[in-house]
């Protein structure tokens, strides 16, 4: 792996890269690779905020829980009602001011939302009525209807939402956050991902370290079986045995290291063994949801049909940020509803509504909501129309020009709706901002300045927003 000998820290000054070579540990989630990733993140994290001019001292957010609904949830059928579509339902759709292209030669029809909307909370937030649990915490949420992206293809749109670049290869948001703020717990990775059995479109590159050092990559926990392979010692191996083995190994390695003082890799490996040993003490307790009381598990819908899977992820996310994990990303798939949106979105909302509302409630009760920024989004929005597939399909196509993102906690402008789309939901028309501006705003809520949180790569200093962006002031409380 080729690494530029210099990189720029969060404060913008050039530093020598660590002499130690980067250890590349693929995409697995074994205890050894997880431990080494976390260890090296702590060793070469960006300077503490007080030592740089990239940090804003008045920021509230210290952790992020990023809820990504893969496939593109429809804003029109969740948080952005369009009554005019009731009048236009099944009327032919023609894009205003444009001739149909060969690709658009088939007829398209407007589709009304199958869901009724309510005004939730004292803020009167617009929500489809099937978000019955989330409606109870509406006043803790800031809705943003003005976001736009550049792609209608799932993998490239996922990369842009997660990494700022449509073509992959760049660091994920969690990698940037950990690079800028450093780890809060030396015994756990700083960037943890909770995927589904099938990885999202674009794969593990969605939580890559990109050109940042490999220790900033996201650590995925397995959704089935042991979340981390090799987490427990082999049969008959006690902690005392492990401790004695590590002590003997350290003694042997110390002699070898003394003879080869320039080989820092050996010291890193020794430290890695120690970290893995410490993780065996802390990780099982964090991942063990059975220790939670029955009331908490019921709050998240654990053990109940439809909500158990995502409820477990949300509860685990709370436990992880409680233990100091800086960035936790949760995936929920199958939101690509080209057909039968009432059935598809209806089932999906039922699966996440209760767990997400529980997450907000639980964090708030524990005094953690102010310091934890929750983000809910997909990779793009949906159109107010759909084509014909074996008859008229009541679904929606991909739409990069309008989508809804919402935030909770972390100093966001709770109880407000920012931006608006046109009367049909096709394009953002008020408070319109590109996803790069959203990324800049997310970093600002964490106290980071995107223009100064840079890394030297391929001949220039790079940043999450690619070429800079503007803070969306309305999203900050």
Question: Main attributes?
Answer:
two-stranded antiparallel ribbon; nine-stranded mixed beta sheet; disordered N terminus; single chain; Alkaline Phosphatase, subunit A; alpha/beta; 10 helices
Q: Can you give me a brief rundown of this structure?
A:
With 477 residues, this protein is α/β, with parallel strands linked by helices.
End-to-end distance:
43 Å
Radius of gyration: 23 Å
* Number of strand segments: 21
CATH architecture group name: 3-Layer(aba) Sandwich
| Large-scale geometry | globular
| Stretches with pLDDT under 50, minimum 5 residues | 1-29, 41-53, 99-104
Strand fraction: 15-25%
Number of helices: 10
Biggest sheet details: 9 strands, mixed
Chain-averaged pLDDT: 85
Question: Structural class given helices, strands, pairing?
Answer: alpha/beta
Please render the helix and strand layout as text.
Layout: E1 6-8, E2 14-16, H1 31-43, E3 63-69, H2 84-88, E4 108-110, E5 117-120, E6 125-128, E7 141-148, H3 154-163, H4 173-181, E8 191-194, E9 219-220, H5 239-259, H6 264-287, H7 294-299, H8 308-322, E10 327-332, H9 341-365, E11 372-377, E12 381-382, E13 385-387, E14 398-399, E15 403-408, E16 416-418, E17 420-421, E18 428-430, E19 433-434, H10 435-445, E20 455-457, E21 460-462
Parallel strand pairs: 3-10, 3-11, 7-16, 7-19, 8-9, 8-10
Antiparallel strand pairs: 1-2, 4-13, 5-6, 7-15, 11-15, 12-14, 17-18, 20-21
């Amino acid at each position: 792996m080729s690494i530029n000998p210099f990189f720029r820290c969060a404060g913008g000054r050039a530093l020598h890269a660590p002499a130690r070579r980067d250890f590349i540990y693929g995409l697995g989630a074994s205890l050894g690779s997880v431990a080494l990733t976390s260890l090296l993140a702590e060793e070469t994290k960006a300077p503490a905020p007080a030592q740089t001019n990239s940090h804003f001292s008045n920021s509230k957010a210290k952790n992020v829980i990023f809820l990504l609904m893969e496939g593109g949830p429809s804003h029109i059928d969740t948080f952005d009602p369009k009554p005019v579509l009731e009048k236009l339902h099944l009327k032919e759709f023609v894009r205003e001011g444009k001739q149909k292209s060969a690709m658009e030669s088939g007829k398209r029809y407007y589709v009304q939302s199958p869901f009724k909307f309510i005004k939730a909370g004292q803020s009167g937030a617009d929500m489809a009525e099937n978000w019955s649990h989330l409606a109870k915490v509406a006043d803790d949420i800031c809705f943003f209807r003005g976001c736009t992206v550049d792609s209608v293809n799932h993998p490239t749109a996922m990369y842009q939402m997660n990494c700022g670049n449509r073509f992959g290869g760049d660091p994920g948001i969690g990698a940037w956050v950990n690079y800028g703020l450093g780890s809060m717990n030396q015994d756990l990775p700083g960037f943890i991902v909770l995927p589904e059995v099938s990885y999202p479109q674009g794969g593990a590159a969605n939580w890559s370290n990109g050109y940042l050092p490999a220790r900033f990559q996201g650590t995925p926990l397995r959704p089935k079986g042991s979340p981390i392979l090799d987490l427990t010692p082999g049969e008959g191996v006690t902690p005392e045995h492990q401790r004695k083995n590590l002590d003997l190994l350290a003694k042997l390695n110390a002699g070898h290291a003394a003879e080869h003082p320039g080989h820092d890799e050996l010291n890193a490996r020794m430290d890695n063994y120690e970290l893995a040993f410490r993780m065996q003490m802390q990780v099982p307790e964090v991942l063990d949801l059975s220790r939670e009381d029955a009331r908490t598990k019921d709050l998240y819908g654990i053990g109940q049909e439809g909500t158990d899977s995502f409820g477990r992820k949300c509860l685990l996310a709370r436990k992880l940020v409680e233990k100091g994990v800086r960035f936790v990303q949760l995936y929920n798939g199958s939101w690509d509803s080209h057909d039968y949106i009432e059935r598809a979105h209806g089932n999906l909302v039922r699966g996440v509504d209760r767990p997400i509302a529980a997450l907000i409630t639980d964090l708030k009760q524990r005094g953690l909501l102010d310091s934890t920024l929750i983000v809910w989004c997909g990779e793009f929005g949906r159109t107010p129309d759909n084509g014909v597939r074996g008859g008229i399909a009541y679904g929606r196509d991909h739409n990069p020009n309008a989508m809804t993102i919402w935030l909770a906690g972390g100093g966001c402008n709770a109880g407000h709706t920012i931006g608006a789309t046109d009367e049909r939901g096709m394009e953002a028309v008020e408070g319109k901002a590109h996803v790069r501006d959203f990324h800049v705003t997310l970093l600002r809520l964490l106290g980071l300045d995107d223009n100064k949180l840079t890394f030297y790569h391929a001949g220039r200093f790079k940043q999450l927003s690619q070429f800079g962006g503007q803070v969306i002031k309305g999203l900050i409380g």
